[in-house]
Amino acid sequence: MFKTFRRENAVEKIFDIFIYLTAIFVLIITLYPFLNILAVSLNDSVDAARGGIGILPRKFSLANYQEIFKYKSIPHAFIISILRTIIGTVTGIVASCMVAYTLSRKDFMARKIFGVLFVLTMYISGGLIPDYMLVRKLHMVNNFAVYILPGLINTWNVIVIRSFMDNLPYSLQESAKIDGASDFVVFMKIVMPLCLPVIATISLFIAVGQWNSWMDTFLYASSKDSLSTLQYELVKVMSNTTASAGQAEALKNQTSASANTVSPESIRMAITIVATVPILVVYPFLQKYFVSGMTLGAVKQ
């Protein structure tokens, strides 16, 4: 019996080692692309054109970032992106939670009908032209509201939040109702505090979507510079740099006096870092809620 115990213990140790090695391997292949992009963005463009850069810059230079931030529209666009991310996330969470709470109520007789109608919107869409016509009819073209209202409620977010609410003890709501609490009080004082994990998870999804979005700026607000977002400005910077890609061939013949010249590839890497870092800074604060929110529905009552 002692030998059997030792054999099982050895198997467990081997399995643990295998798990650790697998986790390390996954960590390396996950981090390497990001570190490589960071290294290229911090490397001199002329030197980067030779290739062979790993996770550390071979010839350190901030010229790529200087090229990006020399555009005067970048700081204002950064503020617009922050505003749309914050406002869009807060309003999106409030609206989605209210709809999810309504659909989760057992005394709402039409919740199945409305649930089916919401799901149908995930498969059936009017298309880009009807969307533009609707936005135009609502006078949201060249209006900040176009960043908020069209995507205020996302069906997938509503379904996820509703699934979480369905797992909450309904007796809590019934007890509050007996004590005289209104539906609004139940929603704000009981349901919402218990939904912090799923709220944090969906907030991260909405925030990432708002931060990375640039197509709505291109379609609905491109003619108004004051509404331009950071992502849209970075797309324009990348397009302008790529348009002059013919100069890249001349990099080999340039002298050291023109070392500040940047290449399209280096600009792409720097833009990727600028667009990614803000989300990476926010994520650690939501990580514990994000992990618990992703496991919703794993345990049924």
TrEMBL record:
Gene: araQ_6
Chain segments annotated as transmembrane: 14-35, 77-101, 113-132, 144-165, 186-208, 267-286
Protein name: L-arabinose transport system permease protein AraQ
Membrane topology annotation: Multi-pass membrane protein
Record SUPFAM superfamilies: MetI-like
Gene Ontology BP terms: transmembrane transport
Location(s) in or outside the cell: Cell membrane
Source organism (scientific name): Clostridium oryzae
Domain (ABC transmembrane type-1) ranges: 78-286
CC per GO annotation: plasma membrane
Entry keywords, A to Z: Cell membrane, Membrane, Transmembrane, Transmembrane helix, Transport
Highest taxon above the source species: Bacteria
